[in-house]
Predict the 3D structure of the following.
Amino acid sequence: MNELAIFIIFSTLFLAIGVYGLLSKRNAIRILFAIEIIINAANLNIGAFARYMPYSLGSAQAIAIFVIGVAAAEAAIGLAIIIEAFRLRSKVELDEMKEMKG
Amino acid sequence: MIILIATLAIPAILLPLLTLRNRSSSKIAPSVTIASLLLSLYELPFILTSNGAGIWYYPRNLISFDGIALIFSVTIIIVSLMVTISSFSTVASSSNNSLYYSLILFTTLGMILVSSASDLLMLLISWELMTVPSFVLAAFRRNDVKASEGAIKYFLAAALSAALILFGISLAYGISGSTTFSVVANAFANASTNTYPIVILSSALLASGFAVKMALAPFHFWLPDTVEGSYPQIAALLGAGSKKAGFAAAIRIFVVLLLVAKFTSFVLNWQIALAIVSAITITWGNVAALTQKSISRMLAYSSIAQAGYMMIGLAVQGTAGAVFGLIGLLLHVLFHGIMKGSAFIATVNIGDNMDDLAGLYRRAPATALGFTISLFALAGLPPLNGFWSKLYLFLAAVQASMPWLAAVALANSALALGYYSYLAKRMYFDEPVKKDDPKEKREVLAVLLFSSAFIIITGFYPGPLIGLISSLASHLI
């Protein structure tokens, strides 16, 4: 087995961990962490591909930096929304959110 | 394209500065927003003609503004205009109403870029430009428990979709060494048996990422909650506008990428898979809409069902019904954006409870009339425009030898007509439960007047519009 395959298997494992976290956890912060795990697994993928394939390293670095920036912006807004919800109900458990049903 | 981006981005960046001034800026921000949206609507045809349809042009093939991007951009800008105009008095009391309009401009720009991106990284960045401002808009009603709950659910769903799309993009980059659509498509077409699993995983992740935004059946859970919690105008933006951007991205992937890539060479019948998703979405949306007690939730579920109708247009690609499917899909994108937008915006005047509807015709006749026209257009009643787009989609399903899909869609149309008529019956024939007359906001009436005129005119004279769309769509197939 070559080294690239190990990286891909590793990042796919992270994807699986992230999806598991999404499906099984009920705390909004934990779900946010699961999503961040998926994003970073994708970044790991991009880095590994750039290292082991005969393509320009520059474009991979550009993609990775864009992804990090975008993910940070998204997490900042998301945390603000979660803090606002915490201020209103002092809980961020999703299954306690029963204002709406359907 | 640069001019279009500048038209939307510069006011969006400058508007928040208005909050620095202590004086009330309640008139400046909406007028600037409307001017900027109208100007960008005016610029759209020039971008198309100056570059030619379907030509990849911008530096390193980032953006291609073709006929499909034009239809989506027109829809998105019209919906944003309707949202902006109808928000005048709703957010006028808020101290940071200029932020509200700035976020609308940002998310509009994001949706236009999503519908014209021809590079996976560009698609991801514009996807975030579209979703991140809309989280804030969904949570704009501070101190409201429902709004914060809806915003959290929307945020988690959208962040999940972005993460899945990103993982799909990283795999596609690994296979092709590039993020340009055409290069990725070629690499997918020439994939060896060793890389098949990666190709399939990548396409599946991209498809499910888009499906969250499009609110297709297993991923639709966020839409009703978010719509119920936020302002009706923002519900219109999410349910009528930004869902369409998901479809634009899906058209790029499924029509351009997979068809060019001869994806059929895999032993994988993706048309049937999409058709099944479409049938499930239509049925689920309509059945769930039947049992709702709140108007906005019912409209949200009907919006999910309409997304299922649009999926028919994607499912028939690569078969005999491809042309009719694409025409029907583009028509339905334009028509549904306007009729669903006006239905959501009408609830500004009506209220969210079913009891608010009783005897509405006597209490607020103009709103009742506009709401009824949008509802019957959504149901696809013949003289209104919804009929034509659904006709094209159903014919496409039959041509693609999927008559069962057309039958499911037709049966669901009858079901949908049932609950829309129930709403109309409550408005026109029931005794009013509430005695006070709701104040009919003039800006909402203006939006309803425009959308009713559009629905009726394109319903009676669909010919020119269908001709235009089929000439634009023919560049793709």
Remarks:
- Chain B has a mean pLDDT of 84.
- The first helix of chain B runs from residue 2 to 14.
- Chain B touches chain A through 47 residues (CB under 8 Å).
